[in-house]
Amino acid sequence: EVGLAYGVGASAGIGMAKDLASIIIGMDPMNNEAIWEKMLKKTFWGQGGGGIFSAAMSGIDIALWDIKGKAWGVPLYKMLGGKSREKIRTYASQLQFGWGDGSDKDMLTEPEQYAQAALTAVSEGYDAIKVDTVAMDRHGNWNQQNLNGPLTDKILRLGYDRMAAIRDAVGPDVDIIAEMHAFTDTTSAIQFGRMIEELGIFYYEEPVMPLNPGQMKQVADKVNIPLAAGERIYWRWGYRPFLENGSLSVIQPDICTCGGITEVKKICDMAHVYDKTVQIHVCGGPISTAVALHMETAIPNFVIHELHRYALLEPNTQTCKYNYLPKNGMYEVPELPGIGQELTEETMKKSPTITVK
Length: 357
Prior knowledge:
Elements: H1 10-23, H2 32-41, H3 51-72, H4 76-79, E1 87-93, H5 111-123, E2 128-131, H6 153-170, E3 175-179, H7 186-196, E4 201-205, H8 213-222, E5 227-229, H9 235-245, E6 250-251, H10 260-273, E7 277-278, H11 286-298, E8 305-308, H12 314-317, E9 330-332, H13 345-350
Parallel strand pairs: 1-8, 2-3, 3-4, 4-5, 5-6, 6-7
Antiparallel strand pairs: 1-9
Protein name: Mandelate racemase/muconate lactonizing enzyme family protein
GO molecular function, one term: lyase activity
Domain Mandelate racemase/muconate lactonizing enzyme C-terminal: 111-226
């Protein structure tokens, strides 16, 4: 899975994957390390990094590990070192869109709606949730253009009231992750972070853009909530400054954009050296979910798994044969060979065919 289906860049990601595939034709798929290095160093642009390049590498690398697991008849996690845990604690993610299955998502506006979405998730067995209470205004419009510099009292109060309504509804024993999507700048991230400290926030995600590690450090120094980020940080080299400056308590690499299984396992091990925990970012299809579960059961420094609101939508769940879902907020890891997931025949029939030469 080239994890660029949302946002802008899907066609570029597929085009890059095609170009990269052309240089590894004839190589042994079992040699994932050699293939990864060739894609990085024999392409000129690879050593400059970037999301498009990294995501294309990710899709190819995941396929290599799937081939290896199926050839050997073992699930991915066994090739990564075996299980560190039997069950995977999971949180319900992006509750600003409501919660539940179906073919659509909501745009919540009032604090009471946020509280109800949280209660719905908790009633299904989740003891942790994630929500962005600042991204949308009271009319359900995206706020991101208005979140730079000192925030108005109106924006701050609405975001706080939504978060407080959730805490009041679910009580003290449910963990709340405050999502910011990097819409806020350093000043506004510190403003809002200080306001919600008293609500007992589990961690504060992407309070600022990940392009400047120094900005993240400023927020970490001035807000008494653990910080998390990583869905737009790529490769070991991207994570290095954040680990060295200690700004992030939780790293969130996306296996489908960060270089695949080969690279993300190294990033997780690197984070362990700095006493940091890992929550794999999951905002893609069923393949993304499957590979994340394998990684998270294998690594010792796992913290929690993300079940995104999008993962429950029918167009997403119907692309693959297996619809893995948690029970009472806990996942079990796929035991089928490889990543434990397959595209359906219908998905393959309606998808375009690309020939690599």
